[in-house]
Amino acid sequence: MDRGARSGLAAAGRWLRSCAFVVQMYAAMAVLALFFTPWAIVDRRGAFAAIQVYCRYVRWSAAWMVGLASEIRGEVPSDEVLIAAKHQSFFDIILICSVLPRPKFIMKKELRFAPILGWYALRIGCVPVDRGRKSQAVAQMLADVAAGRAEPGQLIIYPQGTRVAPGAKRPYKMGTGALYTASGLPCIPAATNVGVFWPRRRIRRDPGLAVVEFLPPIPPTLTHDAFMVRLERTIETASDALMAEAGRRPPR
User: Please, which pLDDT band fits residue 96 given cuts at 50, 70 and 90?
Assistant: First the structure.
């Protein structure tokens, strides 16, 4: 068998393993949701437990089914903080939720209607935002976050507002700076390289080491503009370094 044929068979095998992994990942979501929902209805701790168990299961199954190991670096926040995270695929959400004790996200409002995910997201205190109405969305986000402060936790926001492919550039949005200045909370930047192995819209998962890295906190003392400059530089530099470590050449 020549090299091309062997390469084709290897690629087909990787694609089939990826399909099997994706199918069982969503099946496990349904099973665990059914198991934990009675507890989650009466106590939010049940919702957090379900999410952590599921996310740790996905990390474990990704490692042995498709060869995608994962690692958390840096000090994991446990107090009430704002986390501004690079977002490349669903897997960085999995990694973050597998270690944070009380995660809650700023999320697009459409996710409220997603089966299973939507109800659990609202149960743990995630804040839906209408991304199409910019100024109104920021004002509503700040009001909703303030209303939810009675339930402390780690509030995660994606500064670019959506998943961004490795190497692609997308501006950082003003909502992160508004939330930083209004909340008075320290901000923990988080970098990642997960998109190198787990693309946004493809089924195929590649082997390697996916990393989310919690970086040193930014104290709540900067102006809005100074914070945004520092945040973008910090996250992009660290994410480029993680992607280079994974074998992807960072953009010029």
Answer: very high
- Which among 118, 109, 92, 115 is positioned nearest to 213, based on CA atoms? 92
Where does 68-245 sit in CATH, by number? 3.40.1130.10
What is the DSSP code string of 182-237?
Answer: HH---EEEEEE-GGGTS-SS-S----EEEEEEEPPPBPTTS-HHHHHHHHHHHHHH
Q: Which residue reads 């986000």 in tokens?
A: 141
Domain ranges of the chain: 68-245
Q: How many CB atoms lie within 10 A of CB 93?
A: 23
Task: Count CA atoms within 13 Å of residue 107 on its CB side.
Answer: 22
**In the chain, what percentage of residues exceed pLDDT 90?**
64
**Does the pLDDT at position 208 exceed 80?**
yes
Instruction: State how far the Cα of 151 lies from the Cα of 44, in Å rounded to an integer.
Output: 10
Give the β-pairing of 154-157 and 127-129.
unpaired
pTM of the model as a whole? 0.89
CA distance 210 to 94: 11
Tokens, residue 73: 């670096």
**CA 247 centroid distance within chain:** 21
Of 142, 141, 114, nearest to 128 by C-alpha is 141
